[in-house]
Design a protein that fits this description.
about 120 residues; four-stranded antiparallel beta sheet; globular
């Protein structure tokens, strides 16, 4: 059974840092494309960062380039999002996602989300 569990969110002051974790089970992060999304109140969910399966290439939304880093630990089967220089506009619920191939076609799996609040 595929499961994604996020953790690491919280309240942080502007300029601070947080590291989000996404613990995966039921599949292998090393060979799966994964991504982080976020959704702020009243806004659509948006892609923040993504990492490919084999090869581990990364890409980022322009709004977080140079501040956020996506990575994974293949031994722990966990994906991370290191967030530095946080801004109030980074406040949102952050979700991890993967898309896996199934007999009926690709299926998207989401975690339950973790709240990040950037405020003084």
């Amino acid at each position: 059974q595929v499961q994604l569990v996020e953790s690491g969110g919280g309240l942080v002051q502007p300029g601070g840092s947080l590291r989000l974790s996404c613990a995966a089970s039921g599949f292998t992060v090393r060979t799966s494309a994964m991504s982080w999304y976020r959704q702020a109140p009243g806004k659509e969910r948006e892609l923040v960062a993504a990492i490919t399966g084999v090869g581990g290439s990364t890409n980022y939304a322009d709004s977080v380039k140079g501040r956020f880093t996506i990575s994974r630990d293949n031994v722990k089967n966990t994906m991370y999002l290191q967030m530095n220089s946080l801004k109030p506009e980074d406040t949102a619920v952050y979700y991890c996602k993967t898309v896996l191939g199934r007999y009926g076609g690709p299926v998207a799996y989401w975690g339950q989300g973790t709240q990040v609040t950037v405020s003084s």
